[in-house]
Amino acid sequence: MSQALPKKNVAKQSLPKRVKRSDWTSFRTNKSLPSPLYHQIFSFLRDRILEGSFASGAIFPSESQIEKALEVSRITARRALDELAARGLIVKTQGKQSIVALYRPSTQLVAGVEGMIENNRRMGDATSVELLSHEQVPAGTEVATKLKVKHKATVLWSVRVRRLNGVPFSYAVTHLPLFVSRQVKTEQMSTRPLIDLLEAAGIVIARAEQVISAVQATPEVARALHVEPGAALLSSERIVYDRFERPVELICVQYRPDLYQYGVELKRTTSAKGNHWASESKAKPKTKTMPAKK
């Protein structure tokens, strides 16, 4: 009968070294992976920041510290820090130090699909907006069709980024027909909700059509929203009409889904036609809905 080997003769299995969440220096890059080394470091440090391993306002590891601790080149360390800074996770100060940004993208805005015009107005009070660019351009085929203007007719094109507590969460591209843009002061587009500017100009908003979908962030949008290119974004395209059924605004907004969501409450109702779902907000006005912004 065979006897069990003494415990001292049993070979111990070598377990893979785990990276402690609080010890970023334990991380090691892997050259066999398809992603560049700087991106591996960026992704790891990004996750540590988002989970709270680095306190807000704390001094972040420098290029030289990352270079030595993670055994990579100075260029690799610098690119990783540049990626973190580009996404607003760290803030570079004078000299070579960086600090962890004073926010966490955990606060979410939830907007109801119904009542979106009023939501937009309230969103203007709760957030800040930056007008990145604007100019008069000829309308392309798609824009001209949706605004019901002639192809290549002059329209006002603008790009705005909206922030909550300094964190960018929406990227809006707007087209206004010429008869509307002539009544709107462009410089006010960064201080007041556009819907307010339209109504202040005497335009009576009657209705809007909206389509919600998902898109991938282009490099330009990714930089503005502090996300990675190709990241999934919530997209809302809206055409606003006045009382004469004229399109007065075409706006396409892309949102970070970690910061902004659309929501609707449904109520199960019974009628002569049977049971069906109905929007709760239609049966009872929703007073606590967070804004659907621009």
What does this protein structure show overall?
- The protein has 294 residues and is α+β, with helices and mostly antiparallel strands.
- It folds into two domains: 77 residues, Winged helix-like DNA-binding domain superfamily/Winged helix DNA-binding domain (Arc Repressor Mutant, subunit A); 175 residues, Chorismate lyase.
- It is built from nine helices and 13 strands.
- The strands form four sheets. It has a six-stranded antiparallel sheet with strand order 5-6-7-10-9-8, sandwiched between helices. Strands 1-3-2 form a three-stranded antiparallel sheet.
- A hairpin with a 4-residue loop joins strand 9 and strand 10.
- The protein is elongated, with a radius of gyration of 26 Å.
- The termini are far apart.
Q: What is this entry, summarized?
A:
With 294 residues, this protein is α+β, with helices and mostly antiparallel strands. The chain contains nine helices and 13 strands.
Percentage of residues in DSSP E strands: 25-35%
Q: How do the SSEs run, as a string of H and E? A: HEHHEEEHEHEEHHEHEEEEEH
Q: Kindly state the percentage of residues in helix.
A: 25-40%
Instruction: Kindly identify the CATH topology of the largest domain.
Output: Chorismate lyase
CATH superfamily of the largest domain: Chorismate lyase-like
Number of strands: 13
Number of domains: 2
Mean pLDDT: 79
Label the CATH architecture of the largest domain.
3-Layer(aba) Sandwich
Enumerate how many helices there are, as a single number.
Answer: 9
End-to-end distance, in Å?
Answer: 79 Å
pLDDT < 50 stretches: 1-21, 112-117, 281-294
Give the assembly state of these chains: single chain
Describe the biggest sheet? Answer: 6 strands, antiparallel
Strand order of the largest sheet: 5-6-7-10-9-8
What is the overall silhouette? elongated
Gyration radius over CA? 26 Å
- Which structural class do you get from the secondary structure elements? alpha+beta
